[in-house]
Design a protein that fits this description.
The chain is an alpha+beta fold. The protein has three helices and five strands. It has a five-stranded mixed β-sheet with strand order 1-2-3-4-5. Helix 2 packs antiparallel against helix 3. The longest helix has 14 residues. It is globular. The relative contact order is 0.14.
Length: 132
């Protein structure tokens, strides 16, 4: 699914910037029909999302959220060995941010996305998840 898998392992070097610059990343982004936005943060089991990264994700979600548009920040955990790839559908959702609120979760990521796709009737997402 990743277009250039070897490139994903490349590190972006921020040397030359002062040490007060703390770049962040978003592990995955899905968007459907200019109406549904999903931001994923995937961490090793037990590792907390840093405050700055959490603020970044929720601010993006808040900027997207309207009466007609829905944004979700999905916080996932895994216990995959360091030398193995993390498979998103096998991670566990521990928290979801939606409509300006956090909700603690304990559900498989694939199952959560199926639930959301069915609830909001997101056909493109349903089709994508059909191949478990």
């Amino acid at each position: 699914m990743i277009k250039y898998p070897k490139r994903i392992k490349q590190v972006v070097d921020f040397s030359g910037f002062n040490n007060k610059l703390h770049p962040s990343d978003i592990d995955a982004v899905l968007e459907f029909n200019n109406k549904y936005l999903f931001l994923f943060e995937v961490k090793l089991e037990g590792v907390e999302t840093p405050i700055g990264q959490d603020l970044l994700l929720t601010r993006i979600a808040d900027a997207w959220q309207t009466e007609d548009k829905h944004s979700f920040v999905i916080y996932c955990e895994h216990n995959t060995k360091q030398d193995e790839d993390v498979t998103l559908k096998n991670t566990n959702v521990v928290k979801i941010y939606h409509k300006y609120k956090n909700k603690i979760q304990n559900i498989n990521t694939h199952d959560l996305l199926v639930n959301i796709a069915n609830y909001w009737n997101i056909e493109k997402l349903k089709k994508s998840l059909n191949n478990k």
